[in-house]
Amino acid sequence: MEHEKPFAITLDVGSSRANKTGAWRSERPVYVDLLPPCNQACPAGQDIQKWLYHAESGDYESAWRRIMVDSPFPAVLGRICYRPCESACNRGQLDEAVGINSVERFLGDEGIKQGWSMPVSAPSGKRVLVVGAGPAGLSAAYHLAGLGHAVTVRDAEAAPGGMMRYGIPRYRLPREVLDAEIGRIRDMGVVFEQNSRVTDAAQAMADGGFDAVFLAVGAQVGKRAYIPAGDSARVLDAVSLLHDMETGEPPLLGRRVAVYGGGNTAMDAARAAKRLGATDAVVVYRRTRDRMPAHESEVAEAVEEGVAMRWLSTISEIDGDGITVEKMRLDESGFPQPTGEFERLAADSVVLALGQDTDLSLVDGLPDVERAGGVVRVGPGLMTGHPGIFAGGDMVPSGRTATVAVGHGAKAAREIDAWLRGAGTAEPPAPRPATFENLNTWYYSDADRTVRPHLDLSRRVSTFDEIKSGLDESTALLEARRCLSCGNCFECDNCYGVCPDNAVIKLEPGDRYAIDLDYCKGCGICVAECPCGAIEMVPEEC
């Protein structure tokens, strides 16, 4: 005898899909693609999360090629970038930030070792002049060549690289690495004209029959300061010191060296002085360490190498025997004020590291190129007031790092390409940032950050050998796998496994998932259990 069902029971056992229960829903889950904080913080505009995704699968060539879409210098920036991406990394709130820069260096070195190269588009028939072979100019040349334009780079120095070659010591950036990545740009058909200073940008454009010019002259003129100095005082600027070291003519600094300044160049000058034979190197800076513009890692490594730091001090006089420093104090606004207290320090030479200026004389004859504060004014597309002449890097208001310059070069190439084609450029709206609060960190296991080995301290201060080693294949893989994939689905199958209504449909690899809205009740379990915060609930349309 068949039993009647209770009044409230409407479904047979095991037949929850017999009725389309999606009608119960008041809100629905949707998959989203958010902006990872590492991507947002990268001055070079790299899609970091995407190349880490390839790297954690062991597909290093695809990871390298994804980097090269945005930057031609993974091996270089993997050594000299100050890693703003890692400061922003959400994993830093869980344990330690992902070693993004370490993985980038590994991929860059792998690209050099394997001889990987990038394709170029069909010739466009357009010619572009790039003035300056530093990071901004080389980045622009790389991207323009990839777009099919004929590119000529003119530079005043004997070899390309700009401040990467003439401002960053070899112990931070081996020249064979720099040469290899520049060589890849040359192999794309870019023509380099070294020892070719451009004195008039418009004239160079007209005489050479160029359709556009990108000005990327670096800040290579050391700033001076008025300090009373005797005839026997030995004073030089840090930019000249680092430049002469590269050309094989390092100056004689003596046994005791004082470096005046607090930026990264001051740290490089003091550390170079130790390697050139100075037994005592002291950095004199008028503020405290926490107000120093030099990056913390640079200061820490300088101290490790025996560089002394003299805080709250300013040099008031220089003579043949040493320097007179005046003690300073910070007022309520943090500005240093003199105290009237003086002290003598022994010094055989003084290196001024007070910042750098850019030589803008090549636009002196262009009244439609506006200059202010030692830089050139440009529009959102990096074009100056003179049609066809663009500028970037140290020549425009910006942060003065190689990574920022590489980003400027990439943007300039896009803008120049669009201008040459008579088209406009439109930056797509940035997605919402992926925040730590949207992650379900329960699903991520603890994983210590991989530390790059350092050269022994005794060898660091006695040679110009590279002080940091890179990761190997296994440690690079482990480091890449520490990425949380913030805000973007990585097909972990969590939503597919936890849905009580079997409403999540698994698609082909790479296509992620779909929601069968006929059966999704909008319970939100998939959202709660998504590790990376790539699903959110939205109100159902009435």
Low-confidence stretches: 5-11
Tell me the number of strands: 21
Shape: globular
Q: Could you report the average pLDDT, rounded to the nearest whole number?
A: 91
Q: What is the topology, as strand order, of the major beta sheet?
A: 4-3-2-5-18
Radius of gyration: 28 Å
> What's the main sheet like?
5 strands, parallel
The residue fraction in helices comes out at 25-40%
Between the first and last Cα atoms, what is the distance in angstroms?
Answer: 45 Å
Number of helices: 18
Structural class: alpha/beta
Q: What percentage of the residues does DSSP assign to strands (E)? A: 15-25%
Topology diagram in text:
Layout lengths: L26 E5 L5 H5 L6 H9 L3 H11 L3 H7 L3 H5 L11 H15 L12 E5 L3 H12 L3 E5 L8 H4 L8 H13 L3 E3 L7 H7 L4 E4 L5 E2 L12 E3 H9 L9 E5 L3 H12 L4 E5 L11 H9 L3 E3 L2 E6 L3 E9 L5 E11 L2 E4 L3 E2 L13 E2 L2 E2 L12 E3 L10 H20 L35 H4 L12 H8 L13 H5 L5 E3 L6 E3 L9 H4 L6 E5 L3
Parallel strand pairs: 2-3, 2-5, 3-4, 5-18, 7-14, 8-9, 8-14, 9-10
Antiparallel strand pairs: 1-21, 6-15, 11-12, 12-13, 16-17, 19-20
Helix pairs in contact: 2-3, 2-16, 3-6, 4-6, 6-16, 7-14, 11-12
Describe the structure.
The protein has 542 residues and is an alpha/beta fold. Helices cover 29% and strands 17% of the residues. It has 18 helices and 21 strands. The protein has helices spanning 37-41, 48-56, 60-70, 74-80, 84-88, 100-114, 135-146, 163-166, 175-187, 201-207, 238-246, 264-275, 296-304, 402-421, 457-460, 473-480, 494-498, 525-528, and strands at 27-31, 127-131, 150-154, 191-193, 212-215, 221-222, 235-237, 256-260, 280-284, 308-310, 313-318, 322-330, 336-346, 349-352, 356-357, 371-372, 375-376, 389-391, 504-506, 513-515, 535-539. The strands form 7 sheets. Strands 4-3-2-5-18 form a 5-stranded parallel sheet, with helices on both faces. A 5-stranded parallel sheet has the order 7-14-8-9-10. A 3-stranded antiparallel sheet has the order 11-12-13, with no helix packed on it. β2, α7 (135-146) and β3 form a beta-alpha-beta unit. α7 runs parallel beside α14 (402-421). It is globular.
